[in-house]
Amino acid sequence: MASFSITGNLVDIHKEEIYPAEIKIDNGKISSINTNPKLAVLPNNFILPGFIDSHVHIESSMLVPSEFARLAVVHGTVATVSDPHEIANVCGMEGVEFMIENGKTVPFKFNFGAPSCVPATIFETAGASLNATDVEKLLQRDEIKYLSEMMNFPGVLFKDEEVLQKIASAHRLNKPVDGHAPGLRGEKAKQYIDAGIYTDHECFTKEEALDKLNYGMKILIREGSAAKNFEALINLLNDWPDMMMFCSDDKHPDSLVLGHINQLCARAVAKGINIFKILKAACLNPVLHYKLDVGLLRVGDAADFIVVKDLKQFEVEKAFIDGKLVAENGKSNIRTVKSDIINNFSCTKKEVADYEIVYTNEKEISVIEALDGQLITNRLSVEPKRIDGKIVSDIERDFLKIAVVNRYSNTIVAKSFIKNFGLKKGALASSVAHDSHNIVAVGVDDESICKAVNLVIEKKGGVSAVGSNNEMVLGLPVAGLMSNEDGYKIAAHYTAIDKMAKEELGSTLGSPFMTLSFMALLVIPHLKLSDRGLFDGDKFEFTI
Asked: Which ranges in 350-502 belong to alpha helices (H)?
């Protein structure tokens, strides 16, 4: 590997100083840093460690890891802390292995975790399961850096043996444990943290995050395509710079094309937060917490760094990983690599009658209230609209039918109603439906819903939109979650189908497909729909 030098204003997060420096790179590592103050450097040339997404499901980008890397490096991201539990819920251990091996095909630093909750609950049908023995086998691998988010917080609180065994395995192997405890406060939060769980990315209020910080838990500020908690949490960085990190959790391809962690840094600067506190969250803290093999601009470190024009917008001029120039001036140097396809998809096409709901004298029905920019939902009780002895969507009041179709076998379709999608016609469907990834659909009539779902079934996974005279589908052949094609083309295709959902069908949500994908996520309160029925996330039981 060639040796080279680079000169600029070094942003030293460790010393909290910025100074002119010449950095020499040999064989992918930093061999020397010359800090002669007489060095001539350009005013618009700042060198800093690369950005790290401290919690992201690569699958949510709809791209295989190698393509995710192609898009992310342009924005200065050099590494991720990635939970592969989406594909694990579909394909089990084979899915985790796929992510690891595909990630190795490109110069990018993926750091995968061992999924702790596959399936996430027993109240939905998943494609696979990982028990405590499976998890320990994964944790023993060098490529596996941590135990992924422990979503089963009731299992932690009630000392479920299987849950505690997984946590104990991580502790024994000196690997951190990620948390997932939305809304947990007070003594219950303390009990959860005391079990040896070190992070949480699910806080949606400042008060909740502060509660957990005071108990010693590190907080990840999440800003993804669906869940957006930056505004609520960012000011905590002023007082807790060593205890916070940035993450996206879920990032759809159209969003990834536009930016990544660099955007959060720019927004934090605009709020007047100290630059070194920001960069601790974006660059330093994830490396230290997860013990990542990622360089931090010190002699002997891997040459993982970026060059930006300024410390306000963080426009990336160059990005290096192990001394390789992986991106330059908005262009990725990572090439598309051929990827295998794995999947688990066994259901057949449905009929319109499968989506009918017979009226049985209900005065009120339960309705899921989706919240734009949030994963949590509310529970509403409303008078149903009836036609010909059937309960149907009510477009005027924006109460639309939602359905979940088991993708692993042919079973009865689960149906309910949802508010705030805003569709005036047609339907949307997706096999990206956290965490078991059955097919979730929403629409104004049964015919449209049926057509949208069948388009996804034809492709053995994907997202679809159906209108009056138009239909679109983006196939996701890898586990029904990802495409193995060029990431920029997939992003453009997704942008087009997202535009159709909003402009032609009328959805008022910022990211309708991302929001839809979380309506079957039972571990996030308050009301969700699994393939087995309507679920109360507070009582953790089925409901009506």
From this structure: 446-458, 487-499
